[in-house]
Each structure stands twice: as C-alpha cells, then as structure tokens.
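The following block was generated as part of the benchmark described in Methods. Ligand: S-adenosylmethionine.
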Amino acid sequence: MGYERLRERMVERQLARRGIRDERVLEAMRRVPRERFVAPGDRPEAYDDVPLAIGAGQTISQPYMVALIAEAAAVRRGSKVLDVGTGSGYAAAVFAELGADVHTIERIPELAEQARENLRAAGYGDVHVHVGDGSLGVPEEAPFDAIAVAAAAPGLPPALYEQLVTGGRLVVPVGGPAGQRLEVVVRTPEGPAVVHSVECRFVPLVGAGGFRGRGGGR
Ligand code: SAM
C-alpha cells in the first residue's frame, strides 16, 4: 500500500475513530509525510499505531498523541507555537501544516540536526529549530499562543506558562513513569486554569523545569 493510503487509513482508524474531531488537525495529518521523519529502515512502519525509535534513546510520538496535542493546543493559522521536544520534527511539521509560525526546541543536538534535515526535506524548512533546555522555553521568542510539550514533566513548568499570551494554551504531560496525564492549561489573568486532562504516556522532560538527569529521576 502506498504512503498516501497508509496515511488516510491512519487518520480514519487511529484518529477519527478515537475521537479526534478537529477537521483541520485530521487534514494536516493527512498531508504530513510521516515516513520522512522515521529512520529509513522503519518507513514501512511509519503509519503504525506506535511510537518508533529515532536514535539517542528517543522516539517519534504515536500519531494519536500528536493529533491529541495539536487539537488540545487549538493551533490556528498565524498562531505562534512553541513545540518542546523536537525529536524527529514530525509534530513541528503538523503545527506548520496547520499554518502556525513554529519554534521547536530539542536538548539533544544530533536529534535537532536530524529534525532540521527532515523538516527541510519534507517542505517545512521555515520551522525554527533551537537546541537547548526546552523546559525553560525560548524566552527571546515569547510570547506564544500555544506551547506543546512532547515529554513528561513532574509538574507544570513555570517558565513555559510565563511565556504564554493571556488566553494561550500549554499542553503538557504531567507525571512520572508510573502514570501521566496530558494537561491543557490556559493562561488567565487569575492564573493557570486546567481545562482538560487525559491519561497518556511520554518519555521524561529532562532539564531545569523537568526531571533532573538523563534517566528521568528527579
Ligand atoms: N514530537 C516529537 C516527534 O514528533 O518526533 C517526539 C518527541 S520525543 C517523544 C520527546 C523529545 O523531547 C526527545 O527528543 C527528547 O530528547 C526531548 N526532550 C526531553 N527533555 C527535553 C528538554 N528539556 N528540552 C528539549 N527537549 C527535550
């Protein structure tokens, strides 16, 4: 089966049937060539319902998780978005396909370099890829309309919340290896408002505003 049909099947079976309703997200995921963001040897599995290894002990997220985050972040055309945990660059490409001005940050330089190449090859060369501790955000580019985190944090990372516009959304998995919840937090004049929370499973956010050290221990 060709990639286009695999992509269509992924959208229908893994996303729409599981409750992703935002037609713009479904359309974006119909368009981004996920096979360009996985290791060449894994291309036949690019549209499987799983995360896949991308090197350095990291993964490209499961398609459903990318869709869930994109829907929860309410990314609109012209939104300024920060994607924390670039990994392969796939989620950043989905945000770009939604029409956002995308900044993404990855702590592992080799992955950031590979993601830059993946994004360029897939036609998303205008995504800005930063290297550094994304738990501290990208203050020089703030404020953002939405910040999406693709790694689990021990709690709401304060620096990320501070880099939102009022009304902006922070989507972040919160919790340890035993269990996490994907929290959707809106910045309001009264303080953070958690508007939605569902179970999920992500690799740890490693850094000053995340878990300390490589293994994910505090
Ligand atoms: N969304 C990505 C994709 O589509 O390929 C997958 C991201 S992967 C599940 C999580 C990524 O977060 C890893 O590449 C990891 O190195 C990165 N990461 C973990 N802690 C980080 C931090 N403090 N700052 C930036 N990146 C971080």
